[in-house]
Amino acid sequence: MTDTRRRVKLYALNAERQWDDRGTGHVSSSYVERLKGISLLVRAESDGSLLLESKIQPDTAYQKQQETLIVWSEGDNFDLALSFQEKAGCDEIWEKICQVLGKDPSVDITQDIVEESEDERFDDMSDSAPPVELPPCELSRLEEISEVMANNLSSPVRKEKLALAIENEGYIRKLLNLFHMCEDLENTEGLHYLYEIFKNIFMLNKNALFEVMFGEETIFDVVGCLEYDPTSPAPKRHRQYLKQLARYKEVIPITNPELLAKIHQTYRVQYIQDVVLPTPSVFEDNMLSTLSSFIFFNKVEIVTLIQEDEKFLTELFTLLTDEATDDLKRRDLVLFLKEFCSFSQNLQPPAKEAFYKTLSTLGILPSLEITLGADDPQTKTASIDILTYIVEFSPSVVRDYTLQQTNSTDEDQMLINVVIEQMICDTDPELGGAVQLMGILRILLDPENMLASVNKSEKTDFLNYFYKYSVHVLIAPLLANTVEDRPAKEDYQTVQLLGLILELLSFCVEHHTYHIKNCILNKDLLRRILVLMKSTHTFLVLCALRFMRKIIALKDEFYNRYIIKGNLFAPVVDAFVRNNGRYNLLDSAILEMFEFIKLEDIRSLCSHVVENFGKVLDDIDYVQTFKALKLRYDQHQDKLKDRERTALDSVPSILRNSRYRRDHRQLEEEEEMWFNEDDDFDDGEAVVPATNEILGKKLDSDLDSIGKIIEKKTDGNGPKLMNSSSKQTSILNNLSNNSTGASSPTPTSADVKSTTLFKKALVDYEGDSDEEEDDEGDILTPSHKRARLS
């Protein structure tokens, strides 16, 4: 059976203040993720569709009426009601609402009576409040009019009523007539009242009133009213500026009267906002939002109207690229284009994309190649601003254009190279243009905003292009200034430029991989940059250090080997020593770099620093960095030794004898053990082969060790080697005789030959021939003996 307790009818109050039935369904309360809170849900009884989804709001007044009705307001002027079939269901939902709001369910309303009555009065004000009655527009009533305006600004509803009264009665034009009378009569008091009246009309923030005030016939009179500030000792001259000093230039004649009127109006309204009106306080900041919107939409309309006039823009770009155009005309064209792009910032993304696509089609980038190299500072600055607008919105447009230039344009005329050249040749002592151009290059070189698709890889193509055609232009000033072991030029402008180049190269190290690596390794760039560590400008020293720090941060062994091979820590350590422990940024930056090497355990660099600069750095005791670095190095060395020892222990002793000199006592112990074991066997044929095999192995290993000793000795040590070898031979012969069980110490003919061979090999080893080796092989081969004994 269907649960009838939660069965409800949903009602909504319409514009005629009548309740409309929105459907019948079942109500529930649950947490809704989208609304981030407990909400009332009503699903239709017929098909289960959602009739209501309303979050329970803490500042909304919910009211329980007639035991089965819950009423509340949803937003402005939208009242809702739930009518329950059963009282129990109404009580359950009311209890849930009160629980969410932290109220006692025994109350019939969730807000205090006083608060509710105030809210109700405020909500009903728009309908029930009487309209504002404006005094007659006469000179003698200006003070009263000013008071009425000021008194009605405190309440939003009263502001609405006041604005409606001013609009309906055509009050602005009447006030402007009074303004003319006051000026003619030089009625200063009346002019002061009119200033206050019009300032308050602006505070009403009503677009309909702005339309009237900013009309062609009225705007100058409105500006005139705002010239008479009571706090100012003399009136301002805003109208004189707008009419006489502010001159409108038409670089290309505009034939559209609507467009022309919009341009004039926008300039004047912008002037009113920026200059004429007093700066709004913190509390008044949002009071002029409609004025800002008025200017905003005007600018959008201007851009749209110009963009639609294809003839106008085509003529503009034709003049811009024409060699016959004089410099002043070109400057005006570029300034117009800059203002045009500035207005376009107000467009929505789709409209802005269409705007820049239009400019690109008309040839804005080839035009900028010309204007960027202009001698006129204003033209150059405006061109940089235009390029910045384009690159910030769509860097891919500029990248595509530069890639198309690869086969069709000379290297020095490519757009990227033109940008780099202008950055390098900036004549401004503060390098304002160079800083802006460096920002443009940084955006273009940023892989984060590069597109990659199935058929196209912008990142690979553009970076290949840049490192092939442009990077050598960028680093040319750097290489030119670091030919010797000290910077060639140390003037402020040069070092500022080198700082910008290093900042861009550091960005490349961080974001590009093999491209910048090849450049650094092939041009030995880090060594040249570290020459700047000897600069007298600390900020440039820090720039060079930052570049090296970016490289070390990559923990790339290619870079590490390059640093070690070139001993490139030497300039850093020298700068550290020259700083002499002063507590400054340079000292901290160098210490941080060594701390990074220690923390990241970059072993190759750690070993290099300790082995080459340990004596200098060991004396630094105000930080523990270098002691910790030395400790880390010692730990590495101990691990290496332990590893070698472990590897040695794993090698069998009989193999180890061929590489390492054995202890004499160990040799005697092994021989003694052998003799003791030999006593356990009777003389017989079974023992002899095993004995000969052991002797053969010992003989081979001892010969190997003797041969290696000989290789390490010079010819002058021959007699000493002869004696030792003779002694060794007699030992071997004795062992051989004993092993065969013979009691006679006299050597056999084979033994004599063997001894002779040892002597010959020890003395005459450099001149041995293949024939002698063959003979020796015959003499030493024991196979016939083994065959006979077995």
TrEMBL record:
Residue span(s) of domain PP4R3 EVH1-like: 5-100
Chain intervals with Polar residues compositional bias: 722-731
Pfam families with a match to the protein in the record: EVH1_PP4R3, PP4R3
One GO cellular component, as annotated: protein phosphatase 4 complex
Molecular functions (GO terms): protein phosphatase activator activity
InterPro entries named among the record's database cross-references: ARM-type_fold, EVH1_PP4R3, P4R3-like_central_dom, PH-like_dom_sf, PP4R3-like
Chief location bin: nucleus
A biological-process GO annotation: DNA damage response
Residue stretches of biased makeup (Acidic residues): 765-778
Sequence ranges of Low complexity compositional bias: 732-750
Region annotation (Disordered) ranges: 711-790
Residues covered by the Serine/threonine-protein phosphatase 4 regulatory subunit 3-like central domain: 144-635
Sorted UniProt keywords: Nucleus
Localization annotation: Nucleus
Gene3D superfamilies found in the cross-reference section: Pleckstrin-homology domain (PH domain)/Phosphotyrosine-binding domain (PTB)
Record's keyword annotation contains DNA-binding: no
Protein family according to the UniProt entry: Belongs to the SMEK family.
Record protein name field: Serine/threonine-protein phosphatase 4 regulatory subunit 3
Organism, scientific name: Gryllus longicercus
